[in-house]
Amino acid sequence: MKVAVIGGGTMGNGIAHVLAQYGHEVTLVEAEQARVDKALATIKGNLDRQAKKEIITAAQAEAALKRINGATSIDDCRGVELAVEAVFEDFAVKQDIFKRLDAVCPKGALLASNTSAISITKIAAVTKRPAQVIGMHFMNPVPLMKLVEVVTGQATAPETLQRVMQLARDLGKTPVAVQDYPGFISNRVLLPMINEAVFCLMEGIADRDAIDTVMKLGMNHPMGPLTLADFIGLDVCLDIMEVLHEGLGDDKYRPCPLLRRMVAAGHLGRKSGRGFYEYA
Ligand code: NAI
After folding, report:
1. 116 flagged as catalytic
2. Distance of CA 30 to CAs 15, 64, 70, 159, Å?
3. In the annotation, is 62 catalytic?
4. Which residue's alpha carbon is at the smallest distance from atom 17 of ligand 1?
5. Helix crossing, 234-248 with 257-264: angle to 10°?
6. Of all protein residues, whose CA lies closest to atom 18 belonging to ligand 1?
7. Pocket flag, ligand 1, residue 62 (CB < 6 Å)
8. Domain ranges of the chain
9. What is the pTM of this model?
10. Is position 196 annotated as part of the catalytic site?
11. How many CB atoms lie within 10 A of CB 56?
């Protein structure tokens, strides 16, 4: 089917990759040509790696890349059956994209957002087709991670949910239907755990390595919560805690002061070279 992906950053390039790998014709829209080129180069590198590991053949990698057309305007989304938005986590930016997608995409086309924490109901309400708006919350890295949280807003039609659940299955993913409440399931459960680990550190209950070791060896988590927080980015963790705190109105979601202090210091985790751990 003809699909569009808006935003070709960390998530958008992975979503475009998987859609193309499974035979869909993808229009990948970025803000400017240099970013289109960068996204396509990243996708090529990742497809080539899959071919080297014999997950797909070299011919399949080449064919997938050919199915992706770069674009710098949403006007190029005319004729798509589905658009998946993966731009910055900023409501004003997403609102503008959804208004334009609603104007350009055919009647009946589905509009999905990969947002981690913005309300699907609120995004849907800026369009004239709220029944066709839905969340498709992929996990990073998209080609490897099986889960897709499929988020239904207040007005999402049951048929929209069914079509997106089937599409996710056809992409080799395991979709899970969830309702549109702050943090959905993934971040509602994960982030308070990370936040609690930061409280444990702040209160001196144990040191960094001990906290991570308890969760790794005791709970069989592949990595400890502080290591994971560094991967996600401490600024992103703080933003999500704020969304939970504000949206659910319960003080059990208050962000840990140490998390705030680290973000204020610019210690954001892997991406800044320093978070709970240091990176070369
Ligand atoms: P990113 O910063 O890597 O990529 C965002 C891209 O959107 C950038 O390349 C930017 O140029 C592009 N963009 C911005 N405005 C645009 C516009 N008007 N038109 C076209 N492109 C535009 O961000 P990332 O991490 O890929 O996140 C995207 C979305 O996915 C966010 O809503 C985020 O919450 C969500 N998400 C992120 C996850 C992650 O682990 N990074 C996991 C799951 C969801």
Report:
1. yes
2. 13, 19, 8, 29
3. no
4. 31
5. 140
6. 31
7. no
8. 2-179, 187-272
9. 0.94
10. no
11. 18
Catalytic residue among 113, 116, 119, 195: 116
Amino acid at 225: P
Report, at the CATH architecture level, how domain 2-179 is classified. Answer: 3-Layer(aba) Sandwich (3.40)
Tell which CATH classification among 1.10.1040.10, 3.40.50.2300, 3.40.50.720, 1.10.760.10 matches the domain 187-272.
Answer: 1.10.1040.10
Ligand 1 neighbour 51 (Cβ under 6 A): no
Bridge partners for 85 per DSSP? 6, 113
Residue 69 is among the residues annotated as catalytic for this protein: no
pLDDT per residue as tens, the chain (280 positions): 999 999 999 999 999 999 999 999 999 999 999 999 999 999 999 999 999 999 999 999 999 999 999 999 999 999 999 999 999 989 999 999 999 999 999 999 999 999 998 999 999 999 999 999 999 999 999 999 999 999 999 999 999 999 999 999 999 999 999 999 999 999 999 999 999 999 999 999 999 999 999 999 999 999 999 999 999 999 999 999 999 999 999 999 999 999 999 999 999 999 999 999 999 8
Whether the bond into 130 is cis, omega within 30 of 0: no
